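ARCHIVE CARD
Drawer: 12
Card no.: 0347
Subject: one protein chain, sequence and derived structure
Cross-reference: see card 0346
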Amino acid sequence: MRGAVQMVGSVYFARIINWVAYVLLLRRLAPPEFGQITMAISILMLVTSLKRFGLHVALLHRYDDVERLETTHFLLNGALAVLGAMAAITTALFLPHLQHPFSSLSGATSGETLGIGPLVATALIIFAILDMFRSLVQTSETRLRKELQFGRLALAHASSTVIASIVAVAIAYLGGGTWALILGFSINSLTYVITYCGMIWQRLPPRWPRLRRWDRSGARELLRYGIWFWAAGILQTLTLHFDRLIVGVMLGDELLGIYAAAHLFAQIPTGAVTHMIQG
């Protein structure tokens, strides 16, 4: 009960800070800057959805075998995280070459900017690397969920959100432009990982994986159970991000920035509740 109360309080506090920061950023940055980062995040989510096999859910499902399967989970999840980062980086390297074909498709003139410019590629590479490191803590996060340490999980999420919001606003008002959004997203991931290393792992120290504890049959069990979450996750990611890709490619990053802002504010009433249910 205490953990549930801590989760509710920390989630709502972090969401309020995040919304306030977003309003301040809207007053400082232009819609195209939001549009470019929205495009980078949407591409990242679509590409990395291919490596999300629901392994953390599968590990929780095998509640009594967590001790036996955690090394296998870490190694398997780590390999998928690396492959996902490589796929996202490869996609980023090819993005600049897609600018002209999509410009012709959308009918844009040479003076108009679509949401797949060079800065999108740079942001995508940075986000992909950070997403890989963040994925590596999922085994420890799953152990915390097994031990019902929801208060500590909520604190990790809330602290990363609050610190990232403050940093993004500070950089924006110092004239950092789009880099305020890039570094804000980056700080969120870095703070989340550091929180685990410095605070959460004090309660449940990491059991560093050993290759000799790799369980081939256990890996098949995890993949067999998680494959359904993988398929559902791809469909959910397409539902959440495909419209943003269409808006960015066909209408440009300025309208995509406006679209993303409107979408965020439309989710304010239910955003925190949805986050808690999914978490």
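Annotation on reverse: Residues 105-112 have pLDDT under 50 and may be disordered. DSSP finds twelve helices and no strands in the chain.
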